[in-house]
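Incident log, support desk, overnight shift.

02:14 A customer reports that sequence design results differ from what the structure should imply. Their input is reproduced verbatim below. On-call engineer (initials T.W.) acknowledged and began investigating.
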């Protein structure tokens, strides 16, 4: 893959801002699709990227991943949707269904959209999201729409252990409440914020389980974080990063704030 990306980056007629996707299906079959509402498939995929459906990876961004300290990368995974009944085989679209994970130049697995959300949090790339919680001791659920979110990796090496603290903050609006809770009550609001914190942490833990523990691919930027803070230690240990990374301990500091309560039911 590195050779192909190097060619694209050097070719004067190819755009480094072009989006990159991965699929099990042939590129030719995907490009020949005839979407019902757009001129061509590129417009469909561009809209999906603009609406933050999955990862947004340009050629330039992929090149940066490949030359990063870990060399691992992640790309949006697309599939061709089955055509509607009575339509031709090519009268459909391709849709982003998850993320392909690469360790160096080798694809090591695919994660679904739910796990991808956790990856985006860890990479500080989450921008739009709906988080749904089921408050305790009541029926129904509450959904919040994230209007602002950010995260930061805080590396630390102590007693030979490599650790990361993930600091995340978010602002959100309540967009649906099917419970009988009075969301305008400050105590209820605090409870909702704690539940949102827990839901966000669970998303990131799920991503760590699949990508850090199972696939052992550092697509989160952990290597860069340690390199920046401990340059001398990194230069001594970088050749052992593949063994260090799966054992990096991750803790969370998450602060969610509900800005608008919306309409209570």
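02:41 Re-run completed on a clean worker. Output:
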């Amino acid at each position: 893959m590195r050779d192909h990306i190097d060619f694209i980056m050097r070719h004067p007629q190819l755009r480094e801002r072009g989006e990159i996707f991965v699929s099990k299906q042939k590129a030719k079959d995907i490009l020949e699709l005839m979407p019902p509402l757009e001129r061509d498939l590129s417009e469909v995929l561009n809209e999906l990227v603009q609406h933050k459906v999955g990862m947004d990876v340009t050629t330039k961004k992929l090149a940066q991943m490949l030359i990063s300290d870990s060399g691992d990368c992640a790309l949006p995974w697309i599939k061709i949707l089955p055509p509607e009944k009575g339509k031709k085989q090519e009268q459909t679209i391709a849709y982003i269904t998850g993320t392909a994970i690469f360790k160096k130049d080798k694809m090591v697995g695919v994660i679904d959209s739910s796990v991808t959300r956790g990856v985006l949090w860890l990479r500080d790339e989450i921008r739009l999201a709906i988080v749904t919680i089921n408050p305790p001791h009541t029926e129904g659920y509450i959904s919040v729409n994230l209007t602002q979110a950010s995260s930061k990796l805080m590396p630390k090496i102590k007693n030979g252990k490599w650790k990361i603290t993930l600091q995340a903050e978010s602002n959100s609006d309540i967009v649906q409440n099917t419970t009988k809770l009075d969301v305008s009550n400050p105590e209820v609001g605090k409870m909702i914020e704690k539940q949102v914190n827990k839901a966000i942490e669970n998303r990131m833990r799920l991503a760590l389980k699949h990508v850090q523990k199972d696939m052992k691919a550092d697509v989160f930027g952990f290597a860069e974080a340690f390199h920046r803070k401990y340059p001398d230690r990194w230069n001594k240990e970088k050749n052992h990063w593949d063994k260090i990374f799966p054992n990096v301990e991750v803790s969370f500091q998450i602060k969610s704030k509900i800005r608008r309560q919306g309409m209570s039911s």
